[in-house]
Design goal:
Layout (H helix, E strand, L loop, with lengths): L4 H10 L17 H9 L18 E6 L4 E6 L11 H14 L62 E5 L4 E8 L3 H15 L16 E3 L20 H8 L2 E3 L5
Helix pairs in contact: 2-4, 4-5
């Protein structure tokens, strides 16, 4: 959503160009209704395809390139049809993927797992961006009056479910999905990003699939690539391979 030309003129004349505008006036790579539609079409509990995990309902949050939450949705019929705690987890996943991706290279939150472990090159990264989420009336959560909307999002998440959003010209924000296993969250986020048409990823640490989840941890938890993620208990790795969202794993097992 772009700021209206008249509003730009008023801001320039009054010298208020640097102010933080409300969510309605900030650029956002999508809108909450579109996010909701994409989410429901990607979640088995809402009539979409299976993703290999619990196939429960999910939260999804989008931040713009400035890290401001600008769209939110949940796939279930009510707010507590999905894990309440996943609302903020989804927001931090979106912020992490957006904040650590560039125009020429994407990093998903799944790509951060191995490097964030003790001894890894990113160990301690979870403590680098503390965040105090805004409070508010819980009855507004997931609606267009959600206090998250229009606020800067922090936190760093190092497991699956967060993807940067690309429109073909560069990074335009981040998407976070939470409510299932972290591996299934990655699969859902992959489907949602595709449905939004914001999957024009140029490159990433996974050569064949850009910011795909990489299942290459050995029995000792070491990643051959340095960007690996553990498998979850279900068939998430198989689904990821089928939809192009993952590298490694054993298809059909």
């Amino acid at each position: 959503m772009r700021i209206a030309p008249l509003l730009r003129l008023v801001l320039a004349v009054t010298g208020l160009v640097g102010i933080v505008l409300p969510a309605e006036a900030q650029q956002c790579p999508t809108e909450s209704p579109k996010l909701l539609s994409a989410l429901k079409s990607s979640v088995a509990a809402a009539g979409g395809p299976a993703n290999g995990g619990f196939d429960t309902h999910e939260w999804a949050v989008v931040v713009n390139r400035q890290g401001v939450a600008c769209a939110i949705a949940y796939s279930g019929p009510t707010q507590d049809s999905q894990w309440p705690g996943s609302r903020l987890i989804a927001a931090s996943k979106a912020a992490t993927a957006n904040g650590l991706s560039l125009a020429d290279m994407a990093l998903s939150t799944a790509n951060l797992y191995a490097s964030a472990q003790p001894g890894g090159s990113l160990f301690g990264i979870q403590d680098t961006n503390p965040w105090l989420p805004p409070g508010g009336d819980p009855s507004t959560f997931g609606t267009n009056r959600d206090p998250l909307l229009g606020s800067s999002v922090g936190g760093v998440v190092v497991f699956g479910g967060g993807l940067a959003l690309y429109d073909g010209n560069g990074v335009v924000g981040g998407l976070g999905v939470s409510g299932d296993s972290s591996c299934a969250d990655h699969n859902v986020a992959w489907r949602v990003r595709l449905a939004l048409g914001l999957d024009k990823v140029p490159a990433g640490v996974s050569p064949k699939a850009k910011d795909a989840i990489i299942y290459d941890l050995d029995p000792n938890g070491k990643s051959a690539s340095g960007w690996g993620h553990p498998k979850c208990a279900g068939t998430e790795a198989d689904v990821a391979a089928e939809i192009g969202a993952g590298v490694g794993g054993s298809l059909g097992k």
